[in-house]
Amino acid sequence: MQSYDTVTDALNGLKAKGYTTDFNIAFDKLICSSTNVCLTPGEFEITEVYRFEGETNPSDEEVVYAVESKNGDMKGTLVSAFGIYSDAVSDDLLKKLTIHK
């Protein structure tokens, strides 16, 4: 797995690898707002994870996930804050985001 210095570098690197869909967390699933496609935890795998910790500002702490649908039709990224700034997620989605290939 490649190493990236910034969130932007990670997103650009993953986009070059075909991870072009932009996902967001919608409590119990991932959703692409531009296409309205939703993936439940059973429909995708996390293939890469990059964690970035801000040196002085807690709001700079983020995780970049490379997400691939199990049927192989869709690859994208999810950027999520962690710690006190993290999104509210279901237990199933939280488990999925902490376990990956």
Please characterize this protein's 3D structure.
With 101 residues, this protein is α+β, with helices and mostly antiparallel strands. Helices cover 18% and strands 35% of the residues. It is built from two helices and six strands; from the N terminus they run H-E-E-E-E-E-E-H. The protein has helices at 7-16, 91-98; strands at 21-25, 30-32, 37-39, 44-52, 62-69, 75-81. A hairpin with a 5-residue loop joins strand 5 (62-69) and strand 6 (75-81). The N and C termini lie close together (11 Å). The mean pLDDT is 85.
Q: What's the gyration radius in Å?
A: 13 Å
Q: Can you count the beta strands?
A: 6
What oligomeric arrangement do these chains adopt? single chain
Alpha carbon gap, first and last residue: 11 Å
Strand content: 25-35%
Global morphology: globular
Helices and strands, in order, run as: HEEEEEEH
Low-pLDDT parts are none
Give the tally of structural domains. 1
- The whole-number mean of residue pLDDT values reads 85
Describe the structure concisely.
This protein is of the alpha+beta class and 101 residues long.
